[in-house]
Write a structure and sequence with these properties.
globular; 23% strand; leucine--tRNA ligase; 3-stranded antiparallel beta sheet; alpha+beta; single chain; 261 residues; binds ligand ZZB
Length: 261
């Protein structure tokens, strides 16, 4: 599987992250730390509203250069070590660990997002065996992201988050003949999905959203407005790679069950 890893620069750590980082004392004071969501949909990056991390995952911060550090799971870093992303091929330059729960409320700048800064929120649907364990939320085009956003806002107190961190914007990015210009909310209504726990319907909605967006979608936001998604996807991906805002991150095939956290 070939993802792109998006470099989302931390602009303000959550209070808990600040404590963990200063106690740990192994990041230089001038460090730029980037959280790295893995995505297959670069064309939707304009509509990013939040980053999701898992409560239960412990993340690593890895050294890329004297001042640049990436945040992802250990598993993702082990893969990155063999893709020329870190300085020494095959070695994992781990500097410190931080739990997902401590990252919640951190503000990041996400490349291409229409929002200036977006906030990190906790979810429990992230699979530790896929991607980087960090997910960027696009509620206009990802049904799961849309229902998760609604749930987090509705039950902010329960999840221990400030409702102001939940970005409720749904920006039209892709227009489709059948499902309009915000495909995820349309599908969520149509399939009567009420909660992030409706796994079966969400899987169906996800597949439909992928297919319809890719084959029938036209961009309605950004410099590629009017272009079919099939063409714009390649161009936006290339633009992100050329600007250095993203890099290619691949995962080997094979049973994920044989590899641990
Ligand atoms: C932004 C985005 C926008 C995504 C969209 C999807 C959609 P797949 O096809 O199953 O490989 N993702 C990445 N890592 C994880 C993880 N560890 N656990 C759970 N979800 C994860 O899924 C790849 C997509 O799943 C990635 O692309 C990421 O969300 C999420 F409009 O990034 B995506 C209809 C989907 N639309």
């Amino acid at each position: 599987q070939e993802y792109i890893g998006l470099r989302c620069k931390v602009v303000d750590w959550s209070a808990r992250a600040k404590t963990v980082i200063s106690t740990n004392n192994s990041l230089p004071s001038n460090a730029d730390v980037f959280m790295i969501p893995a995505t297959l949909r670069p064309e939707t990056m304009y509509g990013q509203t939040n980053l999701f991390v898992s409560y239960n995952i412990s993340y690593g911060i890895f050294k890329v250069s004297d001042t640049v550090f990436y945040l992802a799971t250990d598993r993702a870093a082990r893969n990155m070590a063999f893709q020329g992303i870190f300085p020494d091929w095959g070695s994992v330059p781990k500097v410190m660990e931080i739990k997902g729960v401590d990252l919640v409320g951190t503000a990041v700048r996400a490349p291409l997002s229409a929002r200036d800064v977006i906030y990190v929120l906790p979810v429990d649907t992230i699979k530790p065996t896929k991607g980087t364990g960090v997910v960027t939320s696009v509620p206009s085009d990802s049904p799961a992201d849309h229902v998760t956003t609604l749930e987090l806002f509705k039950k902010a107190a329960h999840y221990g988050i400030d409702p102001q961190w939940v970005c409720q914007d749904i920006l039209p990015i892709i227009d489709t003949p059948e499902y309009g210009n915000t495909i995820a909310p349309t599908l969520v209504k149509k399939l009567k999905i009420n909660s992030p726990k409706d796994e079966r319907q969400l899987a169906e909605a996800k597949e439909l959203a992928y297919k319809v967006g890719f084959y029938q979608g036209t961009m309605v936001y950004g410099p590629f407005t009017g272009m079919p998604v099939q063409e714009a996807k390649t161009q936006i991906r290339q633009q992100l790679l050329d600007s250095g805002d993203a890099f290619i991150y691949c995962e080997p095939d094979g049973p994920v069950t044989s590899r641990s956290g």
